Structures are given as C-alpha cells and as structure tokens.
Amino acid sequence: MSANVSYEQAAKDLAMLMGVQISRSTQQRLVHRHEFSPLEVEESVEELSVDGGRIRLRTPLGQPSEWKDYKAVNLHGQAIFATFQDNIALTDWVNRQPLADMVTCIGDGHDGIWNIIAQISIPDSRYEILDWFHLVENLHKIEATAQLLTGVEGECSDFCVSEK
C-alpha cells in the first residue's frame, strides 16, 4: 500500500480495505527499514526499453512544488527497474543481467535516454530503435515526398495494429 500516491493515502486505504489503522509515519518507517534488493533475471535479455519522467514531491502549503527526474528500464517480460536521479545504478543493474549477444534497445529519442542506452552492453551488441510514437512524430523531419511519408506512416500503423 505504501507504493501508493503517498504514505497518507496508504494509511487511509489500509483503514478502508482492512480496518487496520497504521499512521502515515509508521508506513514511511516500515518502508525505510525494509531492504529492497534489486531483482536479478535468469533468462537472457533480448530487448529492453528505457524511459524517464518527472515526479512532483509534496511540499508544505504555500511553497512551490519540487520536481525530480527518474529513469526506468523494462527488460521485456522479465523485470522493471527504476532509479531516482541515479543513471549509473540503472545501467549497472542492466549490465549485471544476462544480456543476449544482440540486445534491442527502444527509446524515445531524448538525449538522456540514449545516453543511458549507450552505457548498456557494447555498441556492436545493440540495436537502437526509436519508439513508435516518436518515430511517427518525427517522420516529417526527413527529406521525403509527402506520399512516401504517408505510406511509411500507414504501413507502420497497419503493422502495429495487426501485431496487437
């Protein structure tokens, strides 16, 4: 429950669902006492995705919101690992996993994401692919006829729809 929106909300949810009263500060203490060891996967990693985002930290009333960056990697079908402002820990974790001879890495095109992917495995052992949304978003940037671009976008759309 503590992985919820906040410790305060976790306390409310526990009370509602289970009738157990555990304060938000106790929720926080329990989480901080627990040793979370990173998952190690057993199967060879053939594909992964890297993404990032921002979270808003709660601040006292009247103070401006504080935003922090995180990055996450999804080892497709095996594990997801995220870090808070610690890209080195993220890439170290990925590189400790059993990586296939060729790993397909999917990213959104942001430099911060490709900088992380650049630290995974070795260059000759990676396929780096721009994700579908950002591929379509950037198609207009290449030199091609409108007909070709429409055809590429249509073929990709047909492929993606048929794969679902």
Structural overview:
39% of the residues lie in helices and 26% in strands. It is α/β, with parallel strands linked by helices and 164 residues long. The model has no long low-confidence stretch (mean pLDDT 85). α4 (111-117) links the parallel β4 and β5. It contains six helices and five strands, in the order ααβββαβαβαα.
Low-confidence stretches: none
**Please, how many helices?**
6
Strand percentage, roughly? 25-35%
Helix content: 25-40%
Largest sheet: 5 strands, mixed
Q: Could you tell me the number of beta strands?
A: 5
Summarize the helix and strand pattern as letters: HHEEEHEHEHH
The gyration radius over C-alpha positions equals 21 Å
Give the tags.
39% helix; alpha/beta; 164 residues; five-stranded mixed beta sheet; 5 strands
Record the SSE blueprint:
Blueprint (H helix, E strand, L loop, with lengths): L6 H12 L5 H10 L11 E13 L8 E10 L3 E6 L2 H10 L2 E9 L3 H7 L8 E5 L1 H7 L7 H18 L1
Parallel strand pairs: 1-4, 4-5
Antiparallel strand pairs: 1-2, 2-3
